[in-house]
Amino acid sequence: MKEGLVSIITPAYKAAGYIHHTIESVLAQTYSNWELLIANDCSPDNTAEVVRSWAVKDDRIKLIDLAVNSGPAGARNASINAAQGQWIAFLDSDDLWLPSKLERCMQFALDKKAALVFTGFRRINADGSQTGEYVSVPKSLSYRQLLGNTAIATSTVLINRQIAGPVEMRKTYYDDFDCWLQILKRGHLAWGLNEDLMRYRVLGQSVSRNKKKSAMHVWRAYRDLEHLGVLASAWHFFWYALRGVLKYRKF
Nearest 5°: phi and psi at 175? Predict the structure, then answer.
């Protein structure tokens, strides 16, 4: 691992319409020691061509072309496996960072000696013409607190691999949520930086917007992956659902 280098993990599928904005937000970062690893998950559009055009301009941008469609977990793992950095940051292909995102997260993580940090954010609509209300984050989350919480948005996360240990996505519906749980299960805290540093793009076809399906998969994560009993699962699910409703009650 290269000390101080941030490896940015970006899975991409049918992302040609938005990924240029995502790349521009990385190029605008005040912290410049990064590599952007974009795993093209067999996109049927020209996602790969768009990424290649940027990679020619800046060799910190690297395209990973997957031979087989592998889903978000497989695409993220492909980028993680190629990552050279001490730090792992996640940025989905339609989301945006504000310019000071990496710099603020790096300093915050170093101050806290944290394995994982995350930040607040705002939603934007598909074309970016509407910006939602600020979504704040708690000061910190333990493993058990995260079980009942929706606070960690993937595109805000920064992980110090020297502290956190291995970072890997298991092939499950919420591979990101599962990954944070596995890191915190080792005894770490996730520290929340309550600053507005990311824009989460809400797309009509986003699977995470299907609340019934999402709820079912959260329940399965408790029972099948975390091996919680029925009562414990019900308790955490209640709080997860309640916080999710409060989080999404306004745009």
Answer: -65, -30
Q: Taking the model in full, what pTM does it have?
A: 0.94
CB under 8 Å to 232, separation ≥6 — which residues? 222
Rounded Cα distance, 16 and 83, in Å: 23
Q: Could you tell me the residue range of the domain that residue 55 belongs to?
A: 2-206
Both tokens assigned to 248: 């999404």
- The one-character DSSP state at 29 is -
Q: What CATH number is attached to the domain comprising 101?
A: 3.90.550.10
91-113: per-residue pLDDT in tens? 999 999 999 999 999 999 999 99
Which DSSP symbol is given to 94?
T
Q: What are the respective helix, strand and coil percentages of the chain, to the nearest 5?
A: 40, 25, 35
C-alpha angle with apex 28: 118 to 247, nearest 5 degrees? 30
DSSP 8-state assignment for residue 45: S
Position 71 in a domain: yes
Q: At 40, is the secondary structure helix, strand, or coil? A: strand
